[in-house]
Amino acid sequence: MTISMKKTGLAAAAATAVLAIASPAFAQEVEFTGVTPETGYILNSFLFLFGGVLVMWMAAGFAMLEAGLVRTKNVSTILLKNIALFSIAGIMYYLIGYNLMYADVTGWIGSLSLWSADDAAALGGDFSGAYSASSDWFFQMVFVATAASIVSGTVAERIKLWPFLIFVVVLTGLLYPITGAWTWGGGWLSEMGFSDYAGSTIVHSVGGWAALTGAIIVGARKGKYGEDGSVHPMPGSNLPLATIGTFILWMGWFGFNGASVLAMDSGSAIIEMSNVFANTSMAAAGGVVAAIILTQILYKKVDLTMALNGALAGLVSITAEPATPTIGSAIIIGAIGGILVVVAVPLLDKLKIDDVVGAVSVHLVAGIWGTIAVPFTNDGASFGTQLTGIVAMGAFTAIASTIVWLVLKFTVGVRLDEEAEANGADATELGLEAYPEFGKGSQRF
Predict the structure, then answer these.
(1) Which of 68, 111, 332, 334 could make an SS bond with 238 (beta carbons 3.0 to 4.6 A apart)?
(2) Is the whole-model pTM more than 0.85?
C-alpha cells in the first residue's frame, strides 16, 4: 500500500478498524526493522542532496523577493548580488569555511584548512559513515548563502557592489563558520546544551546582525527620512515578483528544516521529518494571518508586504525547533513571529535604520524569538542556555561585522555617491537596466 493521503482523525480511526476486521495482520504492532548500512548511506546522502537543492532554490526566492521590493532602477544590481553571493559563499566554504566550522573543533574554532571529500571507506564497502562526505558539504554550504542573502536586501539601493561582495567573503568564510563551530560544530555552546535545530540564530540571526550593522554604518537611502522624523515610503518595483519569491522561500524551507533531521534511514526519522514539514508550513501560515489581522487593526488596511514578511517571520521562528511542537503550538510560534515583524519594521524606521526589505525584522527579531521559544516545546533546552547562545553569537557577529564594515568604509568606501544613488545602481555600476522599456531613453509606441 502506498503512502496514505491526509485523513481526519475520525476517518483514520474508521479505516484502521475496517482493516483490523478484514485482516488480523493489520491489527498487529508494526516494528521498524531498519535498513542495511548501504541503504541507509544512500537514503541519508540523498536527503542531504535533495534538501540542499531545496535550500538552493531559496536563493531564487531571495532574489525574487528583493527584486520586487527594491525600486526599478536597482533591480539588476540586486539580482547580480544574489547570484554573486551564492557563488562566493560556495567557494569560501570550500576554501576555509567548512573545516573552520566542523573539522577538529576545539571549543571555539575548527581547522584552518582546505576541505576535501573522504569517501574512501564507502568506496571500499564500509558504509558506517552513514552518508557521503560531499552530500554533507553541499547541504551545509547552501545554508551559508542564506545568511549572506539577508544582508543584501537590507543594505540595497545605496551600497557599492564590490565592498558588499568583499563583506560577503568575510561573512561566509570566517564569521558564520566560527559561530557555527560553537554550535553545530560541537563547540562550547553545543556542550552547554544550546539548541537550534536548523538555525534561527546560527543562520538567520547571524545574518540579521551583519545586516543591522551594515544598515547603520552605510546609512539610510537619500530621502527616506525627513528632518522632522517623518518616514517617506519608497515602494518596491514589483509586488507580484516579491510574492512569488515568498512562496519559493516557503517551499525551500522544507529542505532547510526538513533535511535538518539529518537522516531518513528509519521509520522514526521519517516520522520526525513529517512533523517538521507540517510544523514549518503551519508556522508560516500563523505568521501570515497574524500580520494580516494586526495591520488591519493598526492601519485599517491590510499590508501585502507585511503579510509576506509575516510568512517569513513564521518560518524563521519555527526553524529553531520544528520537530517537537504540536501543529497548534507551531501556529502560535509563527503568529508571534508575524506580530513581531509588524511591530519591528516601524520601530526601525523610528530609529532611522533603513532596511529595504525588512530582513532585520524577519531574520534577526524573529530568529531571536524562535530560539527563546525552544524550551516551551523541548524539555531538553533551557532558557538560560538559549539566551547565552543568542547573546554570544549576536555580540561576536555585531562586533566583527562592525569592524569589517568600518574598514571598508574608510578604505574603499561603501556608499554610492548622491548622483549614482539618484540615477540607480543599475545605470551607474552595471550599465544595464532590468526594465529598459521604462528607462529615460525608452520610446513609447
Answers:
(1) 68
(2) yes
Q: Torsion over CA of 17, 22, 24 and 27, rounded to 10 degrees?
A: -20
Residue 27 cell numbers, joined: 491489527
How many CB atoms sit inside 10 A of residue 445's CB? 4
Those residues with Cβ within 8 angstroms of residue 295's Cβ, 6 or more apart along the chain or in another chain: 301, 302, 303, 306, 307, 342
- As a whole number of Å, the end-to-end CA separation of the chain is 61
In a domain, 410, yes or no: yes
CATH number at residue 224: 1.10.3430.10
Which class for 239: exposed (0-12), middle (13-18), buried (19 or more C-beta within 10 A)?
Answer: middle
CA distance 319 to 334: 10
Domain containing 310: what range?
Answer: 40-115+124-437
Q: Grid coordinates in use for 427?
A: 545605470
Task: Please provide the average confidence, as pLDDT, over all residues in the chain.
Answer: 90
Taking each helix axis from N to C end, the angle separating 161-170 and 75-92, rounded to the nearest 10 degrees, works out to 30
- How many structural domains is the chain composed of? 1
Q: Is residue 27 part of a domain?
A: no
Q: Which residues pair with 231 in a beta bridge?
A: 225
Quote the CA–CA distance of 371 and 333 in Å, as a whole number.
Answer: 11
Grid coordinates given for 47: 536527503
Radius of gyration for the alpha carbons in the chain, expressed in angstroms and rounded: 23
Cα–Cα distance for residue pair 438/445, rounded to 1 Å: 12
Place of cell 563583506: 167
In DSSP notation, 267-291 reads HHHHHHHHHHHHHHHHHHHHHHHHH
Band (58; pLDDT cuts 50, 70, 90): very high
Q: Which grid cell is 45?
A: 546522502
In this prediction, residue 33 has a pLDDT band, given cuts at 50, 70 and 90, of: low
Instruction: Decide: 140 and 340 in contact? Cβ < 8 Å.
Output: no
d(CA 313, CA 336): 9
| φ/ψ bin of 157: left (φ > 0), alpha (ψ from -120 to 50), beta (otherwise) | left
**Residue 178, in any domain of the structure:** yes
Q: pLDDT tens-digit profile of 415-434?
A: 999 999 999 999 999 999 89
Cα–Cα distance, 185 to 178 (Å, whole number): 9
Is position 25 within any domain?
A: no
pLDDT band at residue 439 using 50, 70 and 90 as cut-offs? low
Give pLDDT, residue 441: 47
